[in-house]
Amino acid sequence: MKKTLLIGLILLFSYNVFSQDKIGVFAGINGSSLSDGFLKSGYLGSNSFSFHIGGLYELRLTEKITFRPKLLFSQQGDREDFDDNIRYETSYLNIPLDFKFFNKPYLLFGPQVGFLIDTKKKEFDFGDLKTLDYGLNLGVGIDIKDFFIEFNVYQGLNKLIEVEFKQSNPFRDIDIKATNTVVQLSLGYNFNI
Questions:
Q1: What is the DSSP letter of 82?
Q2: Which CATH number applies to 21-192?
Q3: Strand 147-156 and strand 22-35: pairing?
Q4: Is 37 helix (H, G, I), strand (E, B) or coil?
Q5: N or C: which end of the chain has fewer CB within 10 A?
C-alpha cells in the first residue's frame, strides 16, 4: 500500500512539474487565395488580405513538445476587387491540431480541418465550394512573457472546386482545380491555468 501511494505521489508530482497547461487568445491577418498548389498565386483571383481570430489550448506532453489545438474564425478566399478576377470570399471555422516543438523560438506542425460557414461569390460562378477543407499547417513563433507572435502557412490538400470547360478553341479551355492556401501572422496572449 505504501509503495502504491509513493508511486502515485511521484507520478502526480511529475505531472504537476511538467504540466503547465495554457489557454490563449489570438488575432491577426491572413494572406489567402484559392490556388492550384503550394503558395501559388490563385487563379480564381489574386492573393488577398483579411483577418482571423481564435483561441487555443496548450497541453505540455514533454519538456519540448506540446499539443496545441486551436479553434479559429478565418476569412479566406479571394477578396481583392479587380475587374478581371473571379472572387469567392469565404469564411471558415478552422481547427488546427498542431504540435509545438521547442520553446523559444518554437516550431508548429500538424493537420488542420476547416468547415466552410459562408461564401460570397462575385461575377462568375463556377459552382459551390466543398464545405470541408483539410490540409497541413506549418509555423514558427516566439513567446515574449505571456504574449506570442506566430507566422503560419496552411496548404489545403483537397480540391474545393473542380471545373473543366472544353471549348472549340483549346487556348480558351478552362480547367480549375483550387485549394486553400493561407499565410497568417498572429499576435496572442496566453493564460496559465
A1: -
A2: 2.40.160.20
A3: unpaired
A4: coil
A5: N
- Cell readout for 2 is 505504501
For the stretch 74-94, pLDDT in tens is 998 775 554 445 567 889 999
The tens digit of pLDDT for each residue in 130-189 reads 889 999 999 999 999 999 999 999 999 988 876 655 555 555 555 567 788 899 999 999
Q: Could you tell me the three cell numbers for 43?
A: 487563379
- Per DSSP (E only), the strands in the chain are 22-35, 48-60, 65-77, 87-101, 106-122, 132-144, 147-156, 161-165, 174-192
Rounded Cα gap, residues 139 and 183, in angstroms: 9
Q: For residues 80 and 86, what is the distance between their CA atoms, to the nearest angstrom? A: 10
Q: What angle do CA 121, 123, 126 make, to 5 degrees?
A: 65
